[in-house]
Amino acid sequence: MFTSRPNSIQKVGFSEKWLKWSELKQYQLLVDVPQINCDVKAGKIINPEFVVKCPAGCQDPKYHVYGTDVYASYSSVCAAAVHSGVLDNSGGKILVRKVAGQSGYKGSYSNGVQSLSLPRWRESFIISGETTKAYQNPSVPGTTAEPVTLMQVPGTTLVKATHTTLPKPSLSAGSTTSSPRLQPVGHRSWELDLWSTITYTSSQNSPRGNPDCKVDLSFLMDGSASIGKRRFRIQKQFLADIAQALDIGPAGPLMGVVQYSDNPATQFNLKTHMNSQDLKAAVEKITQRGGLSNVGRAISFVTKNFFSKANGNRGSAPNVAVVMVDGWPTDKVEEASRIARESGINIFFITIEGAVENEKQYVMEPNFANKAVCRTNGFYSLSVQSWFSLHKTVQPLVKRVCDTERLACSKTCFNSADIGFVIDGSSSVGTGNFRTVLQFVANLSKEFEISDTDTRIGAVQYTYEQRLEFGFDMYSTKSDILNAIKRVGYWSGGTSTGAAISYALEQLFKKSKPNKRKLMILITDGRSYDDIRIPAMAAYHKGVITYAIGIAWAAQDELDIIASYPAKDHAFFVDEFDNLYKFVPKVIQNICTEFNSQPRN
């Protein structure tokens, strides 16, 4: 192709950078081969076929390649060329052809490059080294060489070359048309288009998803009759935009959709679509159900059915439900939402075109959004005045959903505490009963989700003296904790409970994480030999919630002093060691009731 583009300027993709051509004479042939960096991915270049020069050093493992022979366009072009054997690590020219996306890409080790496997990708490419014909200079008499200067595009340089400038054709006498354009030997139009139409697109989503936004997300979309077909289409476009912005993938966010009306129905679950493109295509196929806006029923459905392992719930990712409501619900949401929150689901509400003053009489449950959301501090609620401005909430919503540190409802009574057991090992307990106490400690510990980021367990044994059996940071799995409890040896001695509380505050709870609830569970079988009032007050001032469990000869008045207020919910008396196991459900229930009664502001 011959080019006549004096002083032409071309915008490069979405990067707001400009590629400026020098003044090109008519019929000038561009034969420079652009050099790209090792990290440039094939998907960044829109041409279906192109020639580039790769630098040396692209064998480095930091340049990722996906596939074998046929590569996903998320791969480094030059690293793929080394993997394929077309180039060695010294670089060179290659011909790249785009082909259709594959349902899977198999990784392999070849020529010093380890390529990775990938389930699927939307576009592929293949590589060959046959570039000679494509760049054969035309042999035209009377031509001269003249360099052309280009402003460098990020990630590219120009291989130094000369350009062949062809003479302007003369017009025949009386002719009103120019002579036909000369065609260079062996030329194909796409070669020149590499620079005349090359576009660096906006950054592609990772095939693994955004690891900084690892959440399991359910969108509850409004399929009621009141929304109408046009607004339903706007809602679908909004979901597609959200999917694109989130960057869906197995290492990042996963997303499913539930449509509600009279009754809810899952359109697709968390494991159905593993990338944004597939998910967007699935959203496009959703059809409106019609009926009422039974939001409460939909929230109950999601709590009971959606966030299950069978549906792709990962357990390690926060559960988020985003509820979209046109106007207001036709049923009550408060009780269903409370159960969802206590199950660890972070509920967000997007209310579009909410009730105006003269419509509020029709709203079944006033202030329904605040009764539903995880917290009433405004973080979980978005109010949109018009469906036609819904698109403005895409980025604010994505930012909030991905802020996992603020997803407060992910923290439940089972995964948000540092629990320190303070165990009486005095002589009156005895070896057999001490093993029974340890079994009680193990049974309580089993109920919690234990990890470095969830609930952590520590233990202190005391007589006249105190001993740290293990701290909060020593074991991070449930099996390790249970084994550590089994290994605790019986000490024997006196009963200095006050000193034990002080020791636990210093050796255990001083190292508690700031975002953890601090729970002390003290187990004793007798009256303390020392003062308990001052240590108990110190525990209160340090924010430690204390449960006191007395057995046999323990004094109820002391248990009430040690326990947090109200004592009736935190102090328990057991007549025999063998009946300790009966109190496991009661202790767990009280811990969770107290947790769930915290203010939601």
TrEMBL record:
Keyword Disulfide bond belongs to the record: yes
Pfam families on file: LCCL, VWA
Domain spans labelled VWFA: 216-401, 418-587
GO biological process, one term: positive regulation of cell-substrate adhesion
Domain LCCL: 36-125
Keywords linked to the UniProt accession: Disulfide bond, Extracellular matrix, Glycoprotein, Neurogenesis, Repeat, Secreted, Signal
Localization terms from the record: Secreted, Extracellular space, Extracellular matrix
Superkingdom of origin organism: Eukaryota
One cellular component term from this protein's GO annotations in UniProt: interstitial matrix
Entry-linked PROSITE patterns: LCCL, VWFA
Function per UniProt: Promotes matrix assembly and cell adhesiveness. Plays a role in spinal cord formation by regulating the proliferation and differentiation of neural stem cells.
Subunit (UniProt): Binds dermatan sulfate and chondroitin sulfate.
Protein name: Vitrin
